[in-house]
């Protein structure tokens, strides 16, 4: 029987598509719940379009780069991306982690607003002129305005390139016939999860849905940061041993024992497509070979998250950050109670 | 570099004459081992270990029955040294075998040391340092033992010594440090920069038409085996590692590190062309072939020095003579009554320091605190207990007269040349590549040759197996090791303790041997740990690093639990924030922002 289904390729496509579709579906569900049912279909449609533009544009760039790499591989005869693969992964990982974290907090915050205020703030963001003001503020406003574009764009770019690199790494041993079905099934399965999330969240209350999905996004982001640190460390290790450590499998030599916190000679998310461990890795940042860097960055990330949310709540109530002096005028206004805001705005 | 054949022949001829006059002479060498500079491949000048200011170091030449005295002065200044006379049985003089840390303490810088032994066997040998990793820095030279009663004396007209070697531009100590390091987890051996013939390249041998020469070919390399062929000529193999063989025709031979062959080559009767002699390093041994590496070295049979020296043509494939087929001239039969058989299973693995080590039966060799010979001499009847030599000595105790069988399974995908000190071994079985374990092969004694080939260095193929036999007729503590020097460094070594009780009553250690130990504070009595009271107490012995931790250690579990707790606390914070209503201040900010943007409220 000819080989028509490359299992590692399926797993790569599945897990890379999974992360993308989680983010896209969370964004779409969020928009639908906050704006779609309400009064302003125009703003809603524009923002939904931003999400799809971001996804599509990211996909386009991935396809172009992917074709270039395949061309380079067969033309020049070598894997041009491989030597810097870990650097790319690390940089993209950190960027994606930052964006997911910032937008995750923003979405959660918006969900706490009342419906009509959500529409208003969305419109306000749309209307803001991005050409004026100091450069830092301008970038912030630009980023706020196009957040719905940026997040899927960066995610697709990162996941897509990773998929291309991984498939380039493991897939070359397979005949061309083994690819189409595996790629389609992988992407399909990933997309299906996205659709299920989107559908599922229609039943939930917005706030509950957003709390759950934000938790999930932060899990992904923590994993991304940890993996990014791991990627930089892997790059350094590869340089030290003068080769590709992944060639040694998951056993001795595939990792720097001086940095190791735990290492199990199995369950590698990188080897041969990673299988289920790869999925586990992209959702929760699992690694079979944890280092001081990856463990500390993972825990540090959660500490920063905890401190940030506690501070945000504190700020929202008092008008100043913890351990800082509040401005005189805000203190006099704010009598921190938890219920008065809704009453006032009603 | 041109070399006339007569340079080699003249001293040999003179010695032959001497030997006819008196059959047991004393041959004395005064060797000052010191650093010189050399550039044998014309690519790179480097510090090299020479003797008496010279490199290549001189050939040692003697006759069977001669007494050889070698006075060694260590003039290196920054390294210990010593000499091992590779292949000599040293029967009755085990203490002169020159295995550092086994039969003697290394000679400290500035120290003097005398080797004094009687030659018991004819053939082609070599001498080299047995200080870990030292000989590839230059301390390696031919050792030729002539035989007044040679059965092949009338088969050739002249003899020529031809050494093969590999050459590194870096010194061994930094190379060893890189090799045994956490950043070389696969144990990739450093690849030499050049192949050499007679420690140079493009050597010429002036030959006479119609004459038959016996080439004594010695591979003195650290690592690389070499294929050797004489373009346009065939060889007849007549000796391997000091064992005369029935002449066997060969177009190409394969010499692992430390192997020797004597081959007869008869010259053509016309002088119209000169012919290359090619040595080609076996690239299968190298993990990666560096750009620009020339694995070949060429010399020439020069019939007419006015004619050009033609370049060697490429060969389609390497098809060397299989030395398993050789038959010793003495027709010594198969040792068919085995008294003691044991396995040596070879594998490579990483230990807790991350470096890649070589193992015999789960133990990598680590030098004991007390040289094993001194342990054997100082422990009375306990010397027959292999445990006292330390687990990392891989010691086996052999009793006098026993027939020993070593079954070796090479569970490593590399080729290894195994060498035993003090003996020739019968190669009774050798598998092809990838044959797996000997135990699974259904080979019986009926499959063994009636007169097996014997030699002191035997190749085992990748993931293959061999069976070796020898009679324990030579009391002594004998090293058994892979002769790839990198694998000596990574521990592919065992110790054969042969008839220790007899050793205790026969061996006398000269004073300068004890002095070498004293100068370096090395204990000379007791077990591997230097304990003289309780010989079974090996606490304090040198051991290998612990194995790599497998799976989750306490540290890993703590880290994983912390990470999970952190994730849950983080998600709790998110939920807590998300469930709480927006604070008053924040609400005001939103209102302000919307108002500023001009969107109607």
TrEMBL record, chain A:
Which GO terms fall under molecular function for this chain's record? ferrous iron transmembrane transporter activity
Member of which family?
Belongs to the oxidase-dependent Fe transporter (OFeT) (TC 9.A.10.1) family.
List cellular component terms (GO): high-affinity iron permease complex
Keywords of the record: Ion transport, Iron, Iron transport, Membrane, Transmembrane, Transmembrane helix, Transport
Which protein are we looking at?
Plasma membrane iron permease
The record's InterPro entries line, in alphabetical order, gives: FTR1/Fip1/EfeU
Q: How does it sit in the membrane?
A: Multi-pass membrane protein
Query: Which segments cross the bilayer?
Result: 51-75, 87-108, 146-172, 178-197, 209-229, 295-315
> Which compartments does it reside in?
Membrane
What main location does UniProt list? membrane
TrEMBL record, chain B:
Which keywords does this chain's UniProt record carry?
Cell membrane, Copper, Glycoprotein, Ion transport, Iron, Iron transport, Membrane, Metal-binding, Oxidoreductase, Repeat, Signal, Transmembrane, Transmembrane helix, Transport
Q: Which GO terms describe its biological process?
A: cellular response to iron ion starvation; reductive iron assimilation
Q: Which residues cross the membrane?
A: 557-579
Record's keyword annotation contains Signal = yes
Family matches, as CDD domains: CuRO_1_Fet3p, CuRO_2_Fet3p_like, CuRO_3_Fet3p
Q: What's a single GO MF annotation on this record? A: ferroxidase activity
Instruction: Give the domain of life.
Output: Eukaryota
Membrane topology designation: Single-pass type I membrane protein
The signal peptide here is 1-24
All residue ranges annotated as the Plastocyanin-like domain in the record: 33-149, 158-304, 365-501
Q: Which Gene3D superfamilies match?
A: Cupredoxins - blue copper proteins
One of its Pfam families is: Cu-oxidase_3
Gene Ontology cellular component annotations, sorted alphabetically: high-affinity iron permease complex
Question: Which family does the similarity line name?
Answer: Belongs to the multicopper oxidase family.
In Swiss-Prot or TrEMBL terms, this protein is called: Cupredoxin
Q: Which organism is it from?
A: Lineolata rhizophorae
């Amino acid at each position: 029987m000819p080989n028509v289904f490359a299992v590692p390729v399926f797993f790569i496509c599945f897990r890379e598509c999974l992360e993308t579709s989680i983010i896209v579906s969370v964004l779409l569900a969020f928009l639908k719940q906050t704006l779609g049912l309400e009064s302003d279909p125009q703003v809603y449609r524009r923002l939904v379009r931003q999400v799809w533009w971001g996804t599509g544009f990211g996909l386009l760039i991935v396809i172009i780069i992917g074709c270039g790499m395949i061309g380079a591989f067969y033309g020049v005869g070598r894997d041009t991306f491989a030597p810097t693969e870990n650097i790319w992964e690390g940089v993209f990982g950190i960027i994606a982690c930052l964006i997911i974290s910032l937008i995750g907090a923003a979405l959660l915050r918006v969900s706490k607003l009342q419906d009509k205020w959500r529409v208003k703030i969305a419109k306000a963001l749309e209307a803001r002129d991005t050409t004026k003001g100091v450069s830092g503020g301008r970038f912030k406003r630009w980023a706020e305005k196009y957040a719905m574009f940026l997040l899927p764009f960066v995610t697709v770019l990162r996941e897509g390139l990773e998929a291309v690199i991984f498939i380039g790494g493991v897939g070359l041993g397979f005949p061309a016939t083994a690819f189409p079905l595996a790629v389609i099934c992988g992407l399909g399965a990933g997309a299906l999860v996205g659709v299920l999330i989107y559908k599922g969240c229609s039943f939930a209350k917005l706030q509950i849905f957003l709390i759950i999905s934000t938790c999930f996004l932060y899990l992904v982001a923590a994993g991304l940061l940890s993996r990014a640190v791991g990627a930089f460390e892997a790059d350094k290790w590869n340089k030290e041993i003068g080769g590709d450590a992944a060639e040694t499998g998951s056993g001795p030599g595939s990792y720097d024992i001086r940095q190791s916190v735990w290492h199990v000679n199995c369950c590698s998310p990188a080897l041969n497509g990673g299988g289920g461990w790869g999925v586990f890795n992209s959702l929760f940042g699992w690694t079979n070979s944890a280092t001081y860097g990856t463990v500390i960055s993972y825990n540090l990330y959660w500490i920063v998250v905890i401190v940030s949310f506690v501070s945000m709540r504190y700020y929202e109530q008092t008008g100043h950050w913890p351990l800082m002096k509040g401005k005189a005028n805000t203190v006099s206004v704010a009598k921190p109670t938890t219920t008065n805001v809704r009453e006032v705005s009603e | 570099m041109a070399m006339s054949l007569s340079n080699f022949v003249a001293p040999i001829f003179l010695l032959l004459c001497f030997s006819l006059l008196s059959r047991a002479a004393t041959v004395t060498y005064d060797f000052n081992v010191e650093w010189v500079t050399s550039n044998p491949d014309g690519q790179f000048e480097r510090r090299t270990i020479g003797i008496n200011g010279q490199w290549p170091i001189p050939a040692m030449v003697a006759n069977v029955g001669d007494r050889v005295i070698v006075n060694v002065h260590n003039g290196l200044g920054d390294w210990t040294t010593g000499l091992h006379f590779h292949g000599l049985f040293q029967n009755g003089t085990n203490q002169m075998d020159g295995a550092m840390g086994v039969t003697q303490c290394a000679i400290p810088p500035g120290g003097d040391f005398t080797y004094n032994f009687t030659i018991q066997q004819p053939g082609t040998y070599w001498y080299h340092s047995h200080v870990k990793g030292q000989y590839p820095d230059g301390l390696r030279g031919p050792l030729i033992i002539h035989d007044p009663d040679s059965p092949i004396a009338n088969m050739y007209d002249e003899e020529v010594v031809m050494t093969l070697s590999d050459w590194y531009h870096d010194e061994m100590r930094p190379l060893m440090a890189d090799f045994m390091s956490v950043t070389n987890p696969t144990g990739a051996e450093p690849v030499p920069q050049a192949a050499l013939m007679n420690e140079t390249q493009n050597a010429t041998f002036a030959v006479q038409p119609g004459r038959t020469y016996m080439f004594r070919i010695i591979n003195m390399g650290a690592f690389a085996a070499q294929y050797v062929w004489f373009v346009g000529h065939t060889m007849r193999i007549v000796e391997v590692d000091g064992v005369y063989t029935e002449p066997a025709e060969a177009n190409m031979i394969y010499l692992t590190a430390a192997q020797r062959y004597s081959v007869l080559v008869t010259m053509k009767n016309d002088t119209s062309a000169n012919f290359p002699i090619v040595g080609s390093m076996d690239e299968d041994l190298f993990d990666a072939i560096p750009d620009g590496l020339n694995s070949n070295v060429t010399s020439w049979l020069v019939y007419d020095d006015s004619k050009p020296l033609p370049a060697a043509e490429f060969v389609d494939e390497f098809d060397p003579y299989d030395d398993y087929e050789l038959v010793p001239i003495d027709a010594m039969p198969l040792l068919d009554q085995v008294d003691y058989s044991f396995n040596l299973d070879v594998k490579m693995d990483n230990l807790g320091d991350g470096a890649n080590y070589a193992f015999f039966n789960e133990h990598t060799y680590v030098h004991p605190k007390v040289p094993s010979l001194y342990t054997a001499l100082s422990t009375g009847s306990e010397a027959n207990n292999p445990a006292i030599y330390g687990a990392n000595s891989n010691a086996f105790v052999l009793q006098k007269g026993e027939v020993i069988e070593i079954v070796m399974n090479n569970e490593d995908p590399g080729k290894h040349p195994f060498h035993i000190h003090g003996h020739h071994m019968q190669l009774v079985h050798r598998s092809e590549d990838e044959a797996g374990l000997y135990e699974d092969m259904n080979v019986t004694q009926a499959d063994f040759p009636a007169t097996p080939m014997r030699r002191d260095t035997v190749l085992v193929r990748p993931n293959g197996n061999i069976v070796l036999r020898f009679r324990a007729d030579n009391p002594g503590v004998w090293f058994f090791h892979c002769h790839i020097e990198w694998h000596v460094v990574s521990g592919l070594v065992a110790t054969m303790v042969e008839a220790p009780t007899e050793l205790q009553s026969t061996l006398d250690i000269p004073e300068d041997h004890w002095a070498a130990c004293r100068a370096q504070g090395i204990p000379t009595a007791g077990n591997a740990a230097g304990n003289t009271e309780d010989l079974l107490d090996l606490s304090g012995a040198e051991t290998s690093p612990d194995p790599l931790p497998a799976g989750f250690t306490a540290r890993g579990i703590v880290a994983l639990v912390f990470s999970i707790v952190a994730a849950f606390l983080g998600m709790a914070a998110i939920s807590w924030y998300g469930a709480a209503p927006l604070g008053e201040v924040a609400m005001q900010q939103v209102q302000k922002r919307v108002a500023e943007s001009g969107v109607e409220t």
